[in-house]
Amino acid sequence: MKTWIVSLLVGLLAGIIYALLGVRSPAPPVVALLGLFGMLVGEQIVPVTRRLLARQPLTMAWFRHECVPKISGAPRPDPPDSPPRQDA
After folding, report:
1. What are 28-54's pLDDT values in tens digits?
2. If DSSP states are collapsed to H, E and C, what string results for the chain?
3. CA 55 to CA 49: how far, in whole Å?
4. C-alpha to C-alpha distance for 75 and 16, rounded to whole angstroms
5. Conformation bin of residue 65: beta by default, left when phi > 0, alpha when psi is -120 to 50
6. Distance, CA of 46 to CA of 52 (rounded, Å)
């Protein structure tokens, strides 16, 4: 239930921002897709910031393993130090 309320509040905020920018709702497809892409990328700011605050290295391998699958929807790759998979 809490997730629903938060989602509703964020949706209201997005509607207010759309109105202030003069974008009609529902947004044109390109605007909507760019907005969704921005949300996916924006979600990754939190784990990146947490990692930086913990003084852990921000490597491309970590970014590819943790962030890229969440942005692209692709399956998460194996970590670089894991043994090769034996798919039958």
Report:
1. 788 778 888 888 889 899 999 999 999
2. CHHHHHHHHHHHHHHHHHHHHCCCCCCCHHHHHHHHHHHHHHHCHHHHHHHHHCCCCCCHHHHHHHCHHHHHCCCCCCCCCCCCCCCC
3. 10
4. 35
5. alpha
6. 10
